[in-house]
Write a structure and sequence with these properties.
7 helices, 28% helix
């Protein structure tokens, strides 16, 4: 039986690295925010990255859900740029190359944009059949998913992904989603307590 499918994308709460404007990729940086609102106590399953900042956020937002962490849904692997700031990197030619053409260049010991996006979409396709799926992931992960599934073709950097926003992608069927087709509609809302 076919049915409509909604995919909810939520970025994890802020970490110390986020506040310091560092490239936080695979570092297992915990969240610093306390007393996050409960978004929905009825959600039973939440998918996300296996890093603690996603799990901690999911536990706060969806306190009764089972969390399924998947390393394929991690943020980009920033390699040697990990936990560094723009100020620390701005004169590094490898950094300039990566900023200018992230599809062609990768941070040393990291991954380029195409590798990152392919990994994320492979992780998204592991979601099991449902009518409604919630994911707590990273800003870059959300951008990759939106670039792949949004109703209109877009570029990775077209998307602004804040910590307090929820993106809802609506598909006419779960099959449409599994086949990698674009969603039929997209809405963005601010996270508030239910």
């Amino acid at each position: 039986m076919d049915y409509s499918f909604n995919l909810h994308l939520i970025r994890h709460a802020k970490t110390a690295g986020n506040l310091e404007k560092r490239y936080v990729g695979w570092t297992d940086d915990p969240i610093v925010q306390q007393n996050l609102p409960i978004i929905n106590a009825d959600v039973e399953v939440v998918y996300g990255s296996d890093l603690k900042r996603c799990k901690q956020t999911a536990v706060a937002y969806f306190p009764n859900a089972v969390f399924h962490g998947n390393p394929l849904l991690r943020e980009s692997n920033f390699g040697d740029f990990e936990m560094k700031t723009y100020e620390q990197l701005k004169n590094d030619q490898n950094y300039r190359n990566w900023i200018d053409d992230p599809k062609k260049f990768a941070p040393p010991n990291g991954e380029n944009l195409q590798q990152f996006m392919s990994r994320v979409i492979a992780g998204v396709h592991q979601i099991e059949s449902a009518k409604e799926v919630y994911m707590v992931v990273h800003g870059g992960t959300i951008r990759a998913i939106l670039t792949h599934f949004s109703p209109e073709k877009s570029a990775f950097w077209d998307w602004q992904v804040g910590h307090q926003h929820e993106f809802i992608l609506r598909f006419t069927s779960f099959e449409q989603f599994k086949e990698g087709e674009r969603c039929t509609s997209l809405s963005v809302g601010h996270i508030t307590e239910n």
